[in-house]
Design goal:
Layout lengths: L1 H15 L5 H4 L10 H10 L9 E2 L2 H11 L2 H14 L8 E5 L2 E5 L24 H8 L3 H13 L5 H17 L3 H14 L6 H14 L3 H14 L4 H13 L3 H9 L11 H9 L3 H5 L3 H23 L3 H37 L3
Parallel strand pairs: 1-3
Antiparallel strand pairs: 2-3
Length: about 350
């Protein structure tokens, strides 16, 4: 039975694990004691394997990022889910080009918690010197912030121009993720210009910061208030719908979307998770990822078979090893199907709101 155990372990490790390319090896800035195995794999094993990981970042780098930022259990389950999904259903991912190669973009750490709405709006730029707007439009926010603040301080500029420059300076702080100073300048701006048309944009930015920090209740209050002030803002509707989805309130999210597009349908992520708990891999199938579902079913089936054979032959050490690995794949598929459903809802939301 021992040789069967070794073969199964090798199959499970290699069924999805792909080598890391030089592009990803350059990103190896994470390192700690529990990551020694990944470091060894990236340094030695990947060099003798020809195929490259189709995902970005590579699966090994994905695991390193999780292990560096989350506890061991969360990182292990996230890695199991990634290995099950690796290379499957390319239509579900954004394709990016790195050093001439095309990869499927699947960032680590709470993918759906990232708000991808940081688009510069078309605003009147005639009141501010072109250099500041040029820097802002090309996302040189630190330099743009200095130019806008210089324009605010200069006394000869008109009040309207100062208002616009001050607003843009605050938005620079938002894009630089300097949220503390953003909050201080935001409060001052509202006191200085209580009827400004830019307040709505600043409230939206404030709501995004709260969403980034997962303070959904506070973000919801700001967005509901902002919606009353700007009933036709698709961005506010999007963020409201997104907030309800993150809070698990599918009914309210559906109600907001139905006012704009009747055909959009959301699925509660609880159902795929429960399905995967009953039959490993079935949750992935529910959300339209059948290949990942089949892989999950096969891997979990191998683990169950190994546990049965080990116990039946009295090889209890092998039983323990298969039980440990089987638990990782089993709970990884449950967690993975849950998060993939949330990504599915988010993707549909962005498509229908044209973001």
């Amino acid at each position: 039975m021992k040789w069967q155990t070794y073969i199964l372990i090798i199959i499970v490790i290699n069924i999805q694990a792909q080598p890391v390319t030089n592009t990803y090896r350059a990103l190896n800035t994470y390192g700690s004691g529990e990551q020694a195995a990944i470091n060894f794999y990236q340094k030695h094993v990947s060099n003798i394997m020809s195929a490259g990981c189709p995902m970005y970042p590579a699966c090994s780098q994905y695991a390193k990022i999780y292990y560096s930022q989350y506890n061991y259990l969360t990182a292990t389950l996230a890695t199991a889910d990634r290995l099950l999904r690796c290379g499957h259903h390319p239509a579900e991912y954004i394709k990016i080009k790195v050093e001439g190669n095309v990869y499927l973009y699947d960032p680590a750490v709470s993918e759906t918690d990232t708000i991808v709405l940081d688009k510069n709006k078309s605003e009147d730029t005639s009141k501010v010197q072109n250099i500041a707007d040029h820097l802002y439009n090309y996302k040189y926010y630190s330099a743009a912030y200095q130019e806008y603040m210089r324009y605010v301080i200069e006394e000869h500029n008109s009040a309207k121009s100062k208002e616009y420059a001050w607003y843009r300076a605050i938005m620079c702080l938002y894009y630089m993720r300097n949220y503390e100073v953003f909050g201080d300048m935001y409060d001052t701006f509202i006191k200085q210009y209580p009827s400004s048309n830019y307040i709505i944009h600043l409230r939206i930015a404030q709501a995004k910061i709260l969403l980034h920090d997962k303070k959904y209740d506070s973000a919801l209050q700001i967005l509901e208030y902002t919606k009353k002030q700007s009933t036709d803002s698709m961005e506010v509707k999007y963020l409201l719908c997104y907030t309800y989805l993150q809070m698990g309130n599918i009914k309210n999210a559906q109600a907001i979307c139905n006012k704009s597009v009747s055909e959009i349908k959301f699925m509660s992520p609880v159902w795929p998770a429960m399905s995967s708990a009953a039959l490993p891999g079935s949750g992935y199938m529910m959300i339209g990822q059948p290949v990942t579902g089949v892989v999950s079913l096969l891997v979990n089936g191998l683990m169950a078979w190994g546990m049965y054979e080990s116990w039946d032959k009295g090889y209890y050490a092998g039983f323990g090893a298969f039980a440990m690995m089987g638990g990782i794949w089993y709970f990884g598929s449950i967690r993975g199907s849950y998060l993939q459903c949330k990504k599915r809802n988010h993707k549909r939301l962005m498509q229908h709101f044209d973001f």
